[in-house]
Amino acid sequence: MTRVLLTGFEPFDGERVNPSWQAVWRLAAAPPDGCDITAVQLPCAFGSSLDALRAAVERADPEVVVCVGQAGGRAGLTVERVAVNVNDAAIPDNAGRQPIDAPVVGWGPVGYFATLPVKACVAAARAAGVPASVSQTAGTYVCNHVFYGLMHLIATERPALRGGFVHIPYAPEQVLDRALPSMSVTLAVEGLRAVVAAAVSRREDIAAVGGATH
């Protein structure tokens, strides 16, 4: 059994739900074969989210970590390629903080690549019938903050750990009055199931188109 830590976020920006936590919680209840999954909800707040992530890693001692967040406006599941060392919040977090042009880690490098097989994870989600693509940006809000913090923890303290970040769209209930794309939590769960299975089963990525022109 491979020990896997999955994280999702609490609701933020006035939303009543966060599909990232809904999907993570459901997947943990029915994990892929060969996976022992621990699911943890993180606060949508700079600083405390990383404290909660570190505590979860220490408790679960995972071999693979997949953090999951909500990306309102995106039409499919997106596997993030790179985390950047900047907090630049367009809106306050749930603690009322709104850092502008501040580093995640003051002495950390500019960025980190995910250590999951990003393109293989995308291919696995698509094979499961879930719209998916590689993303070149995790934003500069709490999702990127957590992604960068995870990869910095791996780089500096847990080199045997592998990790990455996945964004999923709004749930349908969040866009009833808005002309925005959405994905059912059930479909998101199946996409995440495929991503986790691919992340656990292989270390080397596949050669496939995953870039972007802008």
From TrEMBL:
The keyword Hydrolase applies. Keywords: Cytoplasm, Hydrolase, Protease, Thiol protease. It is found in: Cytoplasm. PROSITE patterns: PYRASE_CYS, PYRASE_GLU. One of its GO terms (molecular function) is pyroglutamyl-peptidase activity. The active site is at E80, C143, H167. It catalyses: Release of an N-terminal pyroglutamyl group from a polypeptide, the second amino acid generally not being Pro. Pfam families: Peptidase_C15. Coiled coil: none annotated. It comes from the Bacteria. It is an enzyme of class 3 (hydrolase). The keyword Cytoplasm applies. Its EC number is 3.4.19.3. HAMAP family: Pyrrolid_peptidase (MF_00417). PANTHER family: PROTEASE FAMILY C15 PYROGLUTAMYL-PEPTIDASE I-RELATED, PYROGLUTAMYL-PEPTIDASE I. Removes 5-oxoproline from various penultimate amino acid residues except L-proline. Homotetramer. Belongs to the peptidase C15 family. NCBIfam families: PRK13197.1 (NF009676), pyro_pdase (TIGR00504). This is Pyrrolidone-carboxylate peptidase. It comes from Streptomyces silvisoli.
